[in-house]
Design goal:
Elements lengths: L2 E8 L16 H6 L2 E3 L2 E3 L1 H7 L11 H24 L4 E6 L14 E4 L3 E4 L4 H5 L18 E4 L2 H13 L5 E3 L9 H10 L7 E6 L10 H17 L5 E7 L9 H13 L3 H4 L13 H14 L3 E10 L6 E10 L1
Parallel strand pairs: 1-10, 4-9, 4-10, 5-8
Antiparallel strand pairs: 1-12, 2-3, 5-9, 6-7, 11-12
Length: 331
Amino acid sequence: MAEIVLGIGTSHGPMLVTDTELWGTRIPADKAARHPWRGKLWSFDELVEARKDERLDLQISKAVLDERQARSQAAIETLADVFAEAEIDVAVILGNDQMEIFDERLIPAFSVYYGETISNTEFTDERIAQLPPGIAESIAGYIPPGGADYSGHPELGLAIIEGAMADGFDVATMKALPKPETPHAFGFVYRRIMRDDPVPSVPVLVNTFYPPNQPSVSRCYDFGKSVLAAIQGWESDARVAVIASGGLTHFVIDEKVDQLFFDALRDRDIGRVAELGEAVFQDGTSEIKNWVPVAGAMAELGLDPTVVDYVPCYRSEAGTGNAMGFVHWRA
């Protein structure tokens, strides 16, 4: 039977693949939106006022930004080293789509890709022009020059689909991507964790972002157990990695939520995370739900997490930015 020998959780946001001088280019978008934080929606100015006692202005100097970026890059390299050392044959990657291959006409709660080839197509100039400020500069962090084709793993993908259906998860299935674009949640893993030399993989997508069919924290945790059972029941001697891509809290950072999540990983108890309520897991913070299935699988295996680093990367006095997390579990 196949053996899961490695779990990884990594953030993947644009701040990780752009120079710190560019982090502030996202602030106009921060100011234009209302952001979920602690169960309510807040304007940028309301967040500045509510968080003034945290002295977040001290978190956004050039020296601090550079130090946070250096720590994040070191953590990514550590995870890449751990992945290389594990000699993985196939990876199951859990991530989300942000209107990259889906749109409002079709957004599955869970979907599994079981095609032969994953095409990470280079963006056209027209596609680049459609991107929000500060995002175009990040694209090279997710798509190599000229694009790339990666190997899928239809056999394992089909095993995960069949196992999910048997366990009561009505997953959508894909033999080809709906659009010629790989969601950045997966592109980041291929480029940075697998260092542009990826093993065959099965992309599994969770709709973390978009109402009305976002799976709950508890549902995601149980889904991870289903994925684990499917891998363990697959007749193969392959060494398998299960990788979560996304999170942690953003676009408004909440270090208390992140630390509670890390405590839940250590204690193998997702209950306290679920008790926060679904209102917490909206916007970018919803990507924690990409980690939750991996947490469920690792808890079932009895593996303890190694937190490589936790790096809250603020970009404004309102607390906007991206909290970066880097974790692995080894069998």
